[in-house]
Design brief:
There is one protein chain. The chain is an alpha/beta fold. The chain has two domains: 118 residues, translation initiation factor eif-2b, domain 1 (Four Helix Bundle (Hemerythrin (Met), subunit A), Up-down Bundle); 209 residues, Rossmann fold. The chain is built from ten helices and 16 strands. It has a seven-stranded mixed β-sheet with strand order 6-5-4-7-10-15-16. α7 links the parallel β5 and β6. α2 packs antiparallel against α5.
Length: 341
């Protein structure tokens, strides 16, 4: 049983986070009691994954209100703290969405904001379970095999959400039905979310799997070892373009070449109808040192910089389907999210 990713600790007066930078070696919960601590936790990926960031954003407003009351902040300082939380990572739309979702209740007081944030977390789990059911059904309707061979990229499981998961939620649903043969988990350079986190979840569920280097994904797919790829999303544009962890685009291209489904699993909160296409999505550029060093050990010559975009955008024409709790869309066939607003 996984330790919950993110919960409100009323007794402790803050957000209890499972520090994902320590997995799989250590399972450690940290208590975050200030907005500065939350922004740091988001930036260093102690909490990550679009749905989990949505919950973090909502609970971050509660932190800001508590901090303001505790330290006597004026309204301008409170607003600035909330803005820092809202903009801590630019690509995942759920973070700002979570803040905005509860901010309208600020005039009703801190308890009303907290209640709304807790409802948002519960709704995220319900959405994830429903989209997983729908995504599993969609795959089984199209793949004529008793058990499926799947590939996933990065981590879109319970660790990336309030509970259950999105892409890994689909895989868990299939596993519970006895319909999973094997899962290839891309390691996901440079921070190894696939190797550290996805494998941790798959092992915990007893799902047969292997971790492969990102560069092996295309050969695995084109070599006929995979029936479908299932990934999450950090932002989905109105036209169906999908922003997800860097390397996702290559997986989609390989699936297109192999003629197998490329399924995106994400709650509707990840759909950003205000963003017309992927060209308008801001791609987070992280510290190049994450690429040029492994821990404290340099792996490139002195003076060689690292190019480290955290995400890429897969055009809608290569997205077979997007499974949300509202239903399954097929962008490659012209079925865009904007048509379901």
């Amino acid at each position: 049983m996984l330790t919950p990713t993110i919960v409100w600790d009323e007794a402790g007066g803050g957000i209890a986070l499972l520090d994902q930078t320590l997995l799989p070696g250590r399972s450690e919960v940290v208590l975050v009691r200030s907005t500065s601590e939350l922004v740091d936790a988001i930036a260093r990926l102690a909490v990550r994954g679009a749905p989990a960031l949505g919950v973090a954003g909502a609970l971050g407003v509660v932190l800001a209100l508590d901090e303001a009351a505790r330290e006597g902040w004026d309204p301008a300082r409170l607003d600035a703290a909330i803005t820092r939380v809202r903009t801590a990572r630019p690509t995942a739309v759920n973070l700002a969405w979570g803040v905005d979702h509860v901010l309208s209740l600020r005039a009703q007081g801190r308890d009303a904001v907290l209640a709304a944030a807790l409802r948002l977390a519960a709704a995220d789990e319900a959405a994830n379970r429903e989209l997983s059911r729908l995504g599993a059904d969609w795959l089984l309707d199209r793949i004529d095999r008793p058990r499926l061979r799947l590939l996933t990229h990065c981590n879109a499981g319970a660790l990336a959400t309030s509970a259950w998961g999105t892409a890994l939620g689909v895989i868990r649903e299939l596993h519970q039905r006895g319909r999973v043969e094997f899962v290839y988990a891309d390691e996901t350079r440079p921070l190894l979310q696939g190797a550290r986190l996805t494998a941790y979840e798959l092992a915990g569920e007893g799902i047969p799997h292997a971790v492969q280097v990102d560069g092996a994904a295309a050969a695995t797919i084109l070599g006929g070892r995979v029936d479908a790829a299932v990934v999450g999303a950090d932002r989905i544009a109105a036209n169906g373009d999908v922003a997800n962890k860097i390397g996702t685009l290559g997986v989609a291209l390989a699936c297109h070449a192999a003629g197998i489904p490329f399924l995106v699993a994400a709650p509707w909160s990840t759909v950003d109808l205000a963003t017309a296409s992927g060209e308008q999505i801001a791609i987070e550029e992280r510290d190049g040192a994450e690429v040029t060093a492994y821990g404290a050990v340099a792996v490139v010559p002195d003076g060689t910089p690292g190019h480290n975009p955290a995400f890429d955008v897969t055009p809608a024409r290569w997205v077979s389907a997007i499974a949300t709790e509202r239903g399954v869309l097929e962008p490659a066939a012209g079925d865009s999210p904007s048509a379901h607003a």
